[in-house]
Design a protein that fits this description.
The protein has 508 residues and is mainly α. Helices cover 58% and strands 5% of the residues. A four-stranded mixed sheet has the order 1-4-2-3. Strand 2 and strand 3 form a beta hairpin. The longest helix is centred in the first third of the chain and has 40 residues.
């Protein structure tokens, strides 16, 4: 074995001496006489059918039956592969004559799979050298006139793909030949074409990938394969589908602002709701991978919050002076509900992104809006109180962390409105979870000072006795406050013990 060469694409032997044929596959067995075009090794003999016993099946018999089924499955798969390879070799023979005018081949090419399955075919040095830079280099190393060459490609992952790649070298219209193939098959052909330095095959596969749609799984495979292949500029057009010029945070934020503004201003309510759901899901997607994604900025979200708040103040101001307004009352009230719904959506995004702390203070400072809200019918204003409920739920869950002054200010400004609107909220909106709102409100109240808790809960106590179910049921908070105030009184007693520390100096 003085001459032995291994290709970079696989472990493969190549030898051009007409008198020798070497294989570098550890699974190679003694060759038999091969047919001129197609000579796969014979498949293993099928296992003998076992007779099913009438008595209870033993473990050995169960294992034997399972082995038999596995062997049968492997055999059936091998037969299907043989049939497909036979068709490819028939196509090879036809193309070599019709496209190239060639007869018998002068290169015996053998392809061996990892499990030892072998396919041999007679191909032509002229075609291989013309189409593949890899074969051109290897075949040019022997200048002496020889009758034939022998090439073996061993340990192939997918033998059928290697055979088909060779067939593609004989085709005159590769792009047409690939029509109808699936993306994963073309990726396999691209990989082998790149290994064989088959430039026309590489170009055709890339043109195919650039033109056809991909499923999400196929997209992952395309990106994975192309990242492993050193094709450099030739795959740029394919990747344009998923990549662009390096984006900056500012450029991405402009796009986010345009998208979010478009949703807030949408005229079709059904489309607006659908896009809100979609965009919220996309914002939550892969939110843990903060280093590799461009996200909407806090400034953009708060800009939209201020825009919604200004629209709400304007609408409510117009609604309270309805006698002087020429607008239809129903249209105006629908606009109020819509602007409140828009603000709820932005606040949801802020909470998901842990950016809602500043909004608590912003919402607590809306005394003008709260005053206007008290002057419109509850059936129209209850959507605004849902924002207060959102914040209380988030505070109660620990998703918003703000000082107690901000929490108390929030309830001081909006709690009365929430009480007034609660009945309408739970009746008019299916998305409002009564218990969730009550738990959130209870937890928020219990984070305040004991004195503040008392003021709020005694006020609630009187209201609940008169309103019943139309008032949030926060009895749990009332119980906790009661125990804190009257049963488990906590006295902030200073520790009278003294800790004395004596410093001693020792001579060195």
């Amino acid at each position: 074995m003085a001459s032995k060469e291994v290709s970079t694409m696989i472990k493969q032997g190549f030898i051009s001496d007409p008198t020798l044929s070497l294989s570098f596959s550890p699974s190679r067995t003694t060759s038999t006489t091969l047919s001129r075009l197609y000579s796969p090794s014979s498949s293993p003999p099928p296992s003998t059918e076992s007779t099913r016993p009438s008595h209870n099946t033993t473990l050995f018999e169960m294992m034997s039956e399972e082995h038999h089924r596995d062997s049968k499955t492997i055999e059936e798969s091998r037969k299907k592969t043989q049939n497909r390879v036979a068709k490819l070799l028939t196509e090879l023979k036809i193309c070599s004559f019709s496209n190239w005018g060639l007869g018998s081949g002068d290169v015996r090419l053998t392809v061996v799979s990892r499990d030892g399955y072998r396919v041999s075919m007679d191909v032509h040095r002229r075609v291989l050298s013309d189409k593949s830079r890899f074969f051109a280099e290897k075949l040019s190393q022997r200048t002496e006139k020889v009758v034939s060459h022998t090439v073996e490609i061993s340990e192939c992952d997918d033998l059928e793909v290697y055979v088909e790649t060779v067939v593609l070298m004989y085709c005159d219209d590769l792009k047409k030949r690939l029509i109808g193939e699936n993306v994963n098959k073309v990726l396999a052909l691209l990989k082998v074409s790149a290994a064989m330095m088959f430039d026309a095959g590489i170009s055709s596969c890339l043109e195919y990938l650039e033109a056809v749609p991909w499923s999400e799984d196929e997209e992952e495979n395309v990106l994975s394969h192309l990242s492993q292949l050193e094709l450099h500029g030739s795959m740029a057009e394919v990747l344009q589908r998923v990549s662009s010029e390096p984006s900056t945070s500012a450029r991405a934020d402009d796009t986010f602002l345009k998208i979010l503004s478009g949703v807030l201003q949408a005229k079709d309510d059904k489309a607006r709701r659908e896009m809100k759901t979609l965009i919220s899901r996309l914002f939550r997607e892969d939110s843990f991978d903060d280093d590799n994604r461009l996200d909407v900025s806090k400034d953009t979200l708060y800009h939209l919050c201020h825009r919604c708040l200004s629209s709400l103040v304007l609408c409510l101001s117009e609604a309270t002076g309805m006698d002087n307004s020429r607008r239809d009352r129903g249209v105006l009230m629908a606009e109020i509900a819509r602007e409140a719904d828009n603000l709820q959506w932005i606040v949801d995004i802020l909470i998901d992104k842990r950016m809602a702390n500043d909004f608590v203070k912003l919402w607590a400072d809306q005394s003008e809006l709260a005053e206007l809200h008290s002057k419109i019918p509850t059936m129209y204003g209850h959507e605004i109180s849902r924002i207060t409920a959102q914040l209380c739920i988030a505070i109660g869950r620990g998703n918003i962390l703000v000082p107690k002054d901000s929490r108390f200010s929030l309830l001081s400004t909006w709690l009365e409105a929430l009480y007034e609107d609660f009945g309408w909220m739970r009746r008019a909106s299916r998305s409002v979870d009564k218990k969730l709102v009550e738990d959130g409100l209870s937890q928020t109240i219990l984070t305040l000072t004991l004195r503040q808790q008392q003021v709020i809960l005694l006020n609630w106590f009187d209201r609940f006795l008169n309103k019943g179910d139309d008032c949030p049921n926060i009895q749990r908070a009332f119980e906790v406050w009661w125990r804190r105030a009257f049963i488990r009184q906590y006295a902030d007693v200073q520790d009278s013990s003294q800790l004395q520390i004596t410093v001693c100096s020792y001579p060195s």
